[in-house]
C-alpha cells in the first residue's frame, strides 16, 4: 500500500505538469526532441521509483532494465521458461 501511494503521487505530478501545457498535444509533449524538461523529470522520478521496487541499484539503460526483469522472471519461473 505505501508503494501504491508513492506511485500515485508521482503519477499525479506528471498529470499536473502536463496540465501546465494544456495548449500542447500529447504528441508534442512526448516528442523526444522537444519534451519539456519538467515533464521529462517527472517521468524520470516515476521510473526511478518503480525501478527501486525491483532493484537496489540505479539502472542506466534499457539493457540493464531488461536484464533485471529477465532475472526476476527466471526467479519467478524457477528457470523453467528462460
What key attributes describe this structure?
single chain, 82 residues, mainly alpha, 4 helices, 68% helix
Q: What helical percentage do the residues reach? A: 55-70%
Largest sheet: none
Average pLDDT over all residues: 92
DSSP E strands, number: 0
Q: How would you sum up the global shape?
A: elongated
Summed up, the helix count is 4
Unreliable runs: none
Q: Find the structural class using helix and strand composition.
A: mainly alpha
How would you portray this structure in words?
With 82 residues, the chain is an all-alpha fold. Helix 1 runs antiparallel to helix 3. The protein is 68% helix and 0% strand. The longest helix has 18 residues.
What's the gist of this structure?
The chain is an all-alpha fold.
Write the topology of this structure.
Blueprint: H1 2-19, H2 26-29, H3 37-54, H4 62-77
Helix pairs in contact: 1-3
Amino acid at each position: 500500500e505505501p508503494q501504491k501511494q508513492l506511485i500515485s503521487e508521482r503519477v499525479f505530478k506528471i498529470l499536473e505538469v502536463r496540465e501546465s501545457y494544456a495548449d500542447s498535444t500529447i504528441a508534442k509533449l512526448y516528442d523526444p526532441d522537444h519534451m519539456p524538461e519538467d515533464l521529462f523529470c517527472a517521468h524520470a522520478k516515476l521510473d526511478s521509483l518503480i525501478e527501486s521496487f525491483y532493484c537496489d541499484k540505479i539502472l542506466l539503460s534499457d539493457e540493464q532494465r531488461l536484464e533485471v526483469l529477465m532475472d526476476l522472471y527466471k526467479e519467478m519461473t524457477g528457470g523453467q521458461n528462460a
